[in-house]
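SAT1 acetyltransferase
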Amino acid sequence: DLLQDGFGEHPFYYCLVAEVQNEEQIERSYTVGYAMYYFTYDPRIGKLLYLEDFYIMEPYQGLGIGSEILKILSQAPLETNCSCMQFLVVIWNKPSVEYYMRCGASDLSTEEGWHLFRFNEETLLRMAAE
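Tokens:
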């Protein structure tokens, strides 16, 4: 599903992938990070890019790979006339929270008081049947 949904004829999401060359086999590379995103709409702010997942393997963190992905990623909402890029960071991931704040991100949980909610599949089935 992941390959079809992201790289099929009608992608449901987009992905930037960071690769490094395999030292033993120059013609081969392997993935060390990625940014998965999609476009959505908010009636108050309009079009936006939602960064669903962003990950750099630990041995490759601190080498500028994440910064380069964010630089490239930041062009997508600008090219599509989006008003912003939004994403979630788990509360215990202080290094990431601090990094995004240094980059100029706004923490909406403190600024606007948003709570994240989720209906799981079981609840959706129950609600749909009522």
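The mean pLDDT is 90.
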